[in-house]
Amino acid sequence: QDNSFEQFIINYCNEKLQQIFIELTLKEEQEEYIREGIEWTHIEYFNNAIICDLIENNQTGILAMLDEECLRPGTVTDDTFLEKLNQVCATHQHFESRMSKCSRFLNDTSLPHSCFRIQHYAGKVMYQVEGFVDKNNDLLYRDLSQAMWKASHSLIKALFPEGNPTKINLKRPPTAGSQFKASVATLMKNLQTKNPNYIRCIKPNDKKAAHIFNDALVCHQIRYLGLLENVRVRRAGYAFRQGYEPCLERYKMLCKQTWPHWRGPARAGVEVLFNELEIPEEEFSFGRSKIFIRNPRTLFKLEDLRKQRLEDLATLIEKIYRGWKCRTRFLLMKKSQIVIASWYRRYA
């Protein structure tokens, strides 16, 4: 119920993860259809980039304001930090505060004067401003690190390398917020180079009990996890897509014209293959570099046909091998019989 600096940066990380989820599933999905020249009606979805910008913007973001308060001379308190937020973020549609002089919140008794509220992607969260400045400073003073570095124990010395007199850095140590922001940026950069798979977990109830489903709780999670938008995009789009060459290589044994070798362009081979299999035209679309299949059942049908064809080919190979083996044995026995017969006639 009482959210402070720790919960604030955790929720910031959740917002960034939600943002990359949106980028990789909703935005990228629809942009791929446009790149491939597939006819597509854009589906609207909420992009939480505006919330991330509210928190991490280098000039007007909440973390930037917090760092500025921690670094400026003079009397710095949590109240001065909140006052600064009320000046800079007062007009932001996802920031709420009683002290921002915004008419919408002046009489909002659910919002104490010492708090601010952010409308996150998952819903509104109220933060107690008390402790923000002290927790963000989180400084290890230089004289303490130097004293620890002088310890005779090798492990302690290794834990405080910044205390080495030859490597003294006169710059002020980074704040906890800026360190966390840099870590999140590194994490996002790393995730964007991967091909992540998502597993969304839905809590059926708050009691962690079996066989109890709270409909309101489940619906709330489905909404704020972005599953509705994702389902709409998936249902309107295509369940499977693959480059023409890999597709032709995988399914070419299903058509006599493409098996065992197709001499023309890969796209033409895929067109011949799908026409031969009599797959309805509404079930697939040809992009610039990929084939798009709408329903999973079409893909399952292709896989079943391929599995049956592989079994038939295995039977054919086995039949030819057995025929070759029997014929080789027969010819050897025939040759042996001729030799034996010729020697027998000579003897007789």
* Net shape: elongated
Q: Over the alpha carbons, how many angstroms does the gyration radius reach? A: 34 Å
Spell out the helices and strands N to C: HHHHEEEHHHHHHEHHEEH
Major beta sheet, specifics?
3 strands, antiparallel
Distance separating the two termini: 113 Å
β-strand percent reads 5-15%
- Poorly predicted runs: none
**Helix fraction?**
40-55%
| Strands, count | 6
Number of helices: 13
Structural class: mainly alpha
Major β-sheet strand ordering:
1-2-3
- Average pLDDT: 84
GO molecular function, one term: microfilament motor activity
Domain Myosin motor: 1-307
Keywords: Actin-binding, ATP-binding, Motor protein, Myosin, Nucleotide-binding
Family: Belongs to the TRAFAC class myosin-kinesin ATPase superfamily. Myosin family.
Commentary on this structure:
Keywords: Actin-binding, ATP-binding, Motor protein, Myosin, Nucleotide-binding. 54% of the residues lie in helices and 7% in strands. It has 13 helices and 6 strands. Strand 2 and strand 3 form a beta hairpin. Helix 3 crosses helix 4. The chain starts with a helix and ends with a helix.
Topology, please?
Layout: H1 5-35, H2 49-56, H3 62-71, H4 78-88, E1 95-96, E2 115-120, E3 123-128, H5 132-137, H6 142-149, H7 154-159, H8 176-192, H9 215-224, H10 227-236, E4 240-243, H11 244-251, H12 266-276, E5 284-286, E6 290-293, H13 296-347
Antiparallel strand pairs: 1-2, 2-3, 4-6, 5-6
GO molecular function, one term: ATP binding
GO cellular component, one term: microvillus
Pfam families: Myosin_head (PF00063)
